[in-house]
Amino acid sequence: MKKLGIIIDSFSGLTVEEANQLGFYFLPLQVEIDGQKYQDGKDDHLSILLKLQSAKSFFSSLPVLDTIEKTVQEASEKYDDVIVLTLHENLSSTNKYLKTFAAEKANVHVIDNHFSGIQFVNVALFARKNYEEKNMPIDKLIKSIAEINQDSLTLLVPKNLDYMIKGGRLTGVKKLILSTISMVPLLNYDIEGKVSVLGLKRTLKGVIGKLFDKTNDFIIQNNLTQVEFNWMHGIDEEVNNLVKKIASEKAIAFKHEQLTSSVVAVHTGPEAFSVTVMPKLETN
């Protein structure tokens, strides 16, 4: 039976142990907080989020290049085909380096996507099942993943815009407007790998309600019948409880809940959260 190798990064929200238990190769993005470097997914997520609350300087960077190169080499030698699912190249140069290292390896396929959090895991398990158990050709599998990508959505709500401004995710006119008005933004991590403002509300409650309105619009527009909602959240319990309350009122159940990864929190703040929508996939 042919075997499929899978490489993901810490934008998945997994720890290295969780990734290894699933049989995935794992690339930890790096974060630096007040001069101290941490490896996302190797160092404890919660402790890093707590440090971020009072941090004066913070930024993220790609995984160690040597680790990227060795991972691609090992996976290529061990598996018949390898798929790579990582943060979009418009948000991280990791993807570009992976494409460079994979260029001479015909069996390594770096797949452009805008997945986040547990979506990476769902897609990876779906891919492995279809490749190994159903003998799906790799080109057809890549096409299937592209279709799932089209039908997937990630919406984010940062409580504090300071992190996005300092992290360079908000610039120019957008930065000026959002930093001078008292509004809470709803952000969309779009299919081109860019973070754009989808709407503004005066209250957190208002923006959460708008978020779920937008997820409903997306489901209708894409003619999706079987979907799952997932939630990646920070450490502000007041925010988290409000999300759960409004989701319950709208009869929305999260299939999976996870703590925000360090690399996400560096750019959105330790209180920020995201809600994702994607098709239900056969993964086991």
TrEMBL record:
Q: Which Gene3D superfamilies does the UniProt record give?
A: 3.30.1180.10, 3.40.50.10170
Q: Which domain of life is it from?
A: Bacteria
Which SUPFAM superfamilies did the record assign? DAK1/DegV-like
Entry annotated with the keyword Oxidoreductase: no
- GO MF, one example: lipid binding
Q: Which keywords does the record carry?
A: Lipid-binding
Q: Does the keyword Translocase apply?
A: no
Q: Which NCBIfam families match?
A: DegV
| Protein name, as recorded | Fatty acid-binding protein DegV-like protein
Q: Which organism is it from?
A: Mycoplasmopsis glycophila
